[in-house]
Amino acid sequence: MKSMSLEQLQRRFDRLQALQRRLANPPPTFFVAGGRRYDLPLRAGAAKQCADVPQRVLDYMGGFFDGDGCVNIDSSRYRLKITQAQSGSEVLLLFRNVFGGGIYAQGKTLGMHRAALQWSVGSNSARLAAGRLSQSTCCKYDQLLLAESALPDRSRLTILRALAPSRAVCPSWSYLAGFFDAEGHIRLRYPSSIALQIGQKFPHVLHAIQDFLWCAEIRSSMYTSSSSHLLVVNRTEECKHVLRRLLVAGLRVKRDTARISLELTPSNFHHVRSELEKRVGLQSRYKRLTAAGAERAHVIRTLQAKTREGTATSNIALHRHINPQLMSLQATHRLRCAEERYLLLRADIRSKLRHEAWIRNLPQMVAQRNTAVLAESPCPVHESHLTAKKEQPRFQPH
Q: Residue 140: what are its φ and ψ, rounded to 5°?
């Protein structure tokens, strides 16, 4: 690739991102959970509620529903829903096996939006499920109590969604495993550090989790922004201890990522990070540093620490020596990051076009311009991909 300025790279990235948003993918026709294939839609007709469920499993399900669950009113009846990427199909199947309901393909299939799966249960089954889930929930406790009642109250449900929960508890490691599966993140920092994060709109459940961890002699910190709150465990050994406890407590969606993270050492950072990237979502794909980027960032942080040290000790000579070097490294880092994310985006688009994706409703002039960008290196784009195709049907819950 020829050398380009930061501004040129940004323009090309923006152009390709506009193209990527038009990439359409066929909806999924099946999912795999527990080594078994299930055809979609997996309707609610054959599903039955399971009466004998261990409390630890209900705690896990309560934590997961607190994180990713939703109480809706659909056609004058309450409906409980959980939407997950296909990697979360095992949890959706668990909810169907315990509470009934169906699993359906759901959501957009354009650009970075992967087709998702949704568990949905309504009518009397939703009321019974709400009653059982409410015993182990915190964030959705009030909404589930409302859904357990006979008559839907849309205005009351809207009010409850905007209010902080009336109770905040973290009853067990099983609950925390479910909540972390839904809302948690595992962060790695070069050369061998781990941090665990959980974000929420309201801080109450995070304070309950913080107290629960404190009782287990695990320290954590709370950070607040204008619209959300973040609970962070920063010490690597404590993070590993938490991950081990969560695995024992029934972690499902993040089971593989937790096990891989526990293998982290200074000598295998890039391998572990690469394995994690294969198993996480796409939300921050073009913001994540490459292996080279992580090393550059580590060097910059080290120099920044020395600069702060020189400032604190009034060492003017040290500050004058390091500051120009630091600024040069930061400028190079920004340029290299722009190059790396541009190349990654271009490779992603070409990979999708080689498989089942197509570009929807793309004007001919724009198609020609973007094809030129994609074709800068080998792997040409076939012309048939640049024509609009008929929309694929999507399955919807009944």
A: -100, 15
Coil, strand or helix at 238: helix
The C-alpha atoms of residue 176 and residue 326 are separated, in whole angstroms, by 42
Contact status, residue 61 vs residue 175, Cβ threshold 8 Å: no
3-state secondary structure of 285: coil
11 and 83 within one domain: no
By residue count, the chain amounts to 398
Measured CA to CA, the distance from residue 124 to residue 133 in angstroms comes to 14
- Find out whether 381 and 350 touch, Cβ atoms under 8 Å: yes
How far is Cα 310 from Cα 330, in angstroms, rounded to an integer? Answer: 19
Is there a domain that residue 395 lies in?
A: no
Our count of domains for the chain comes to 3
Non-local CB neighbours of 232 within 8 Å, separated by 6+ positions: 195, 196, 197, 220, 221, 222, 223
pLDDT value for 314: 66
| Rounded Cα–Cα distance for residues 67 and 79 (Å) | 17
Q: Which residues contact 106 (CB under 8 A, 6 or more apart)?
A: 83, 115, 116, 117, 118, 394, 395, 396, 397
Spans in the chain with pLDDT lower than 50: 365, 377-398
Element (H, E) at 300: helix 291-312
Token pair for 281 = 């979502």
Entry pTM:
0.83
> Domain range spanning residue 345?
6-24+291-386
**DSSP H helices in 25-69:** 55-68
pLDDT at 374: 65
First to last CA, the chain: 51
Look at residues 122, 138, 162 and tell me which one is the last residue of a structural domain: 162
Rounded CA gap, 169 and 207, in Å?
9
Closest CA to 239 of 289, 197, 191: 197
Percent of the chain surpassing pLDDT 70: 87
pLDDT (tens digit, 9 = 90+) per residue, 80-97? 999 998 889 999 999 999
Residue 127 lies in a domain: yes
Upper half-sphere CA count for residue 184 (Cβ side, 13 Å): 27
Q: Has residue 393 been placed in a domain?
A: no
